[in-house]
């Protein structure tokens, strides 16, 4: 499945069906983030039930500590 993540094209394997599947990947695992799917913010409670489709646009905004 082809997705647009943070403005970059990404090819995801067949095991990625939901937002929860996507953020379980090593590059996103453990990050505190806000997720926007096709212009709509998805609440954390809905990550498991929100299915991804071909050509979805996602913005994954993660927080970085600093001072």
Describe this structure in words.
The protein has 67 residues and is mainly beta. The protein has one helix spanning 19-23; strands spanning 2-5, 8-11, 33-37, 40-42, 57-62. It has a 5-stranded mixed beta sheet with strand order 2-1-5-3-4, with no helix packed on it. A hairpin with a 2-residue loop joins strand 3 and strand 4 (40-42).
A few lines on this structure:
The chain is mainly beta and 67 residues long.
Can you give keywords for this protein?
1 helix; globular; 5-stranded mixed β-sheet; 67 residues; mainly beta; single chain
Strand content: 25-35%
Number of helices: 1
Mean pLDDT: 91
Give a short account of the largest sheet.
5 strands, mixed
Shape: globular
In what order do the strands lie side by side in the largest sheet?
Answer: 2-1-5-3-4
Structural class: mainly beta
Q: Secondary-structure element order, as H and E?
A: EEHEEE
Please compute the radius of gyration using only Cα atoms: 12 Å
**Uncertain runs with pLDDT below 50, 5 residues or more?**
none
Question: Secondary structure elements and their pairing?
Answer:
Elements: E1 2-5, E2 8-11, H1 19-23, E3 33-37, E4 40-42, E5 57-62
